[in-house]
Amino acid sequence: MTKAIVLGGSRGIGKAISDSLKSINCDVFATSKEDIDTSNLELVKKFLDAHKETDILVLNTGGPKAKEFSDVTENDWSKYHNQLFVGFCLILQKIKINEGGYIFLISSSVIKEPNPKLIISSAYRAAFSEVLKILSKDYAQKNISCINIAPGPMNTDRTKELIENIDEYKKTLPMGRLGEPEEIGNFVKSIIENNIKYLSGVVINFDGANSNYVF
Amino acid sequence: MTKAIVLGGSRGIGKAISDSLKSINCDVFATSKEDIDTSNLELVKKFLDAHKETDILVLNTGGPKAKEFSDVTENDWSKYHNQLFVGFCLILQKIKINEGGYIFLISSSVIKEPNPKLIISSAYRAAFSEVLKILSKDYAQKNISCINIAPGPMNTDRTKELIENIDEYKKTLPMGRLGEPEEIGNFVKSIIENNIKYLSGVVINFDGANSNYVF
Amino acid sequence: MTKAIVLGGSRGIGKAISDSLKSINCDVFATSKEDIDTSNLELVKKFLDAHKETDILVLNTGGPKAKEFSDVTENDWSKYHNQLFVGFCLILQKIKINEGGYIFLISSSVIKEPNPKLIISSAYRAAFSEVLKILSKDYAQKNISCINIAPGPMNTDRTKELIENIDEYKKTLPMGRLGEPEEIGNFVKSIIENNIKYLSGVVINFDGANSNYVF
Amino acid sequence: MTKAIVLGGSRGIGKAISDSLKSINCDVFATSKEDIDTSNLELVKKFLDAHKETDILVLNTGGPKAKEFSDVTENDWSKYHNQLFVGFCLILQKIKINEGGYIFLISSSVIKEPNPKLIISSAYRAAFSEVLKILSKDYAQKNISCINIAPGPMNTDRTKELIENIDEYKKTLPMGRLGEPEEIGNFVKSIIENNIKYLSGVVINFDGANSNYVF
After folding, report:
1. Partners for B (CB, 8 Å, 3+ pairs)?
2. Which of D109, D111, D214 to mutate to test the interface with B (most CBs of B within 10 A)?
3. Residues A108, A63 contacting (CB under 8 angstroms)
4. pTM to 2 decimals?
5. For residue range D155-169, what is the model confidence (pLDDT) as tens digits?
6. Fewer CB under 10 Å: which end of chain C, C or N?
7. Residue C64: helix, strand or coil by DSSP?
């Protein structure tokens, strides 16, 4: 049976991925903050003592609250550096991804079009995207695919926190709506279900035609 | 019943997409060179007289033979400009994509990492990628998703023509193999099957971790 | 004496480059539409009969009027394909750039962030950017640097044609103003003056912090 | 008199920039490790107590030794996070750049084409590039230009440490040589000398046509 670990799997996009993997009979461990909080490296290590291998790994975590650059503290840098970057690095250094497996990173469209209110997230998610890109070439040798999904505006609690007037905001979006977590859940599921392996080392912007750069 | 037109649907990636769409009961018209040759604009117009709408459109065509820049003739520019660019533009200007539909472009990884031997293809496929990007925002309003798939080295007749020693070449690839057309076929299928719409206005590099840029 | 050919050198950015090159004692041929119109390939060839070599080549030409995709005619594609793409290709196929020389392309920021009103320009300028990128590696062997400058909103007649209310528009720009052609002129001049050669094979967005993608 | 602070100004690219700014009569403070070591945040703060404003700021620092991902320790992440990222952030949060000034970041071509041996550098330099991109829009309002120069293989001590056989390596480069720090020094100088301001919010790859992506 295919084993999957979905970080941040108790809500939002993580939950949608977790649900869709269960629907194809994966043995899913959908973690909550109690199971692993990547901002706490000691907890990460404890988690890694208990979970030494998996077939599918979904690296996913919420970001910090919106904050202007001038307001970011040293503590913020330090905490989110762990949460969005070092925690994931420790995991990839230790955990064994079984041959033929998958690593999905749920990053954000801000890695390419950084956002002043999400400066912490823009920086560290981009940093980790570099790491995953580099590693994708090694993982490829074991037939493990690394897929970085960069969601744009999604219908999650997080977006509701960040955007004041969601209804007005929707009107500015090409599709007139937010993306649904289930769309990403189904996307991940169908890649696994169809054993699509050659999609790797890639960032997939998932934003309903909202970005402005061509590629 | 969902209607699909797959250009260049008689072989390679086009055929794989066509086959996978048939497997989910789409009504697929997989064109061959006899049905439509986008290098001949009169034939394109004839085709458009007979095919006025579709739910799914797959824009796909082979590229020119490998040719160094110094050897490219005015005729080459003209012919492949039509084949890889104008023909597709005429189609998008005329054909009606039904609401909730999809446009897939099968371009090439050379649009981002251009290849000296494929200079014609690099240029015109990039040009059309710009067009599709622009149009994705309009199509979004009708819930039509535009997805540009940029294959890297695939297991097609074309690759065999371009590469002398395929076995040696494979060893240089991160996955040690070429991509299979079926992987793209299944990818397209599963997007449609799962009604994933928020993936739009995006280029998806499909190259087995072969590219070197992060995003 | 250093010889320079500046296409479209009678006005706007081309003129500014031409003027600044003259200020460092280059022997500048600043062409006008009478000397060479790249939309007319026969005139291009005639020009090439008379001008067989140069040290510095500035590929620069105006774009088409603003036009929505649905309004673009086959004639438009054909004309601007020549003007923005094939004409430049013919020039690079024939003209000799002397060792240690420079090729500057004045493209546009729309190659990376395509603009619905400038769809023709977005497409063909991107296409030619691919060609120049490919060739930059060959030219490098002869110590010839290829630099693609992609201007954003500049203070030119062209911008005034495209934008209705320039004063309102300026307020939307990060610097509160348009770029001055002289800034690009001086930029080009100082690269040559300082013999900076290692800057090559690169697109330099010149847009007053207006773009939204990180790189 | 124009005031400039050049971090890491005692050797390599930093020294070349420092020298070229002196040649145009800037009042340059070229820091060495004794003056400020961005890996030590307390020293950064001390430095900021003594240096409260400048016209030109050059953010420049060496990177870590080459290290494979599996060998990177928590200490490494922490140290270089400070050196390549947090230290620079603290500086930009505190120091006043005078109106009409410049911020140059000397990053690396690895931010776009990450390198397995330089994984730390790839990650944190990319992260800070996000920050500078975001801030460039604010700085633009005070006519301050932010320019991210991303050097490829340069003729510095650093490159000699990283590459075993430099002569063999040179043969693989399009120009057959490394870049000279003076080329970057002159580049920076000429932007300031010519008061080119509209070049901002941009990454300029400076790699002798070595990169493979088009843009």
Report:
1. A, C, D
2. D214
3. yes
4. 0.97
5. 999 898 889 999 999
6. N
7. coil
Residue B215, min C-alpha distance to chain D (Å): 7
Q: Quick count: other Cβ atoms within 10 Å of Cβ D71?
A: 10
3-state secondary structure D174-206: CCCCCECHHHHHHHHHHHHHCCCCCCCCEEEEE
How many residues can be counted in chain A?
215
Rounded distance between C-alpha atoms, residue C40 and residue C51, angstroms = 16
HEC secondary structure over chain B? CCEEEECCCCCHHHHHHHHHHHHCCCEEEECCCCCCCCCCHHHHHHHHHHCCEEEEEEECCCCCCCECHHHCCHHHHHHHHHHHHHHHHHHHHHCEEEEEEEEEEECCHHHCCCCCCEHHHHHHHHHHHHHHHHHHHHHHCCCCEEEEEEECCECCHHHHHHCCCHHHHHHCCCCCCCECHHHHHHHHHHHHHCCCCCCCCEEEEECCCCCCCCC
State the complex-level ipTM: 0.97
For every residue of C94-132, which 3-state class applies, written as one string?
A: HCEEEEEEEEEEECCHHHCCCCCCEHHHHHHHHHHHHHH
Tell me: the pLDDT tens digits for B126-161?
Answer: 999 999 999 999 999 999 999 999 999 999 998 988
- In total, the C-beta contacts within 8 angstroms joining chain A to chain D are 84
Measured between CB atoms, does A92 come within 8 Å of chain D? yes
| pLDDT per residue as tens digits for the range A32-90 | 999 999 999 999 999 999 999 999 999 999 989 899 999 999 999 999 999 999 999 99
Q: Provide block-wise average pLDDT over 10 residues at a time, chain B (215 residues).
A: 96 97 97 95 97 98 92 97 98 98 98 97 98 98 98 94 94 98 98 97 98 98
pLDDT of C12 higher than 90: yes
Q: What is the mean pLDDT of residues D40-54?
A: 97
According to the 3-state scheme, what is the secondary structure of D147-161? EEEEECCECCHHHHH
10 Å CB burial of residue B71 (0-12, 13-18, 19+) is exposed
B111 touches chain D (CB under 8 A): yes
Q: Does any CB of chain C come closer than 8 Å to the CB of residue A112? A: yes
**B130 closest CB neighbour out of C70, C126, C134:** C126
What distance in Å separates residue B116's CA from the closest CA in chain C?
6
Q: Is A154 on the interface with D (CB under 8 A)?
A: no
For residue A93, what pLDDT band results from cuts at 50, 70 and 90?
very high
Question: Given pLDDT bands bounded at 50, 70 and 90, which one contains residue D109?
Answer: very high
Q: Does D126 touch chain B (CB under 8 A)?
A: yes
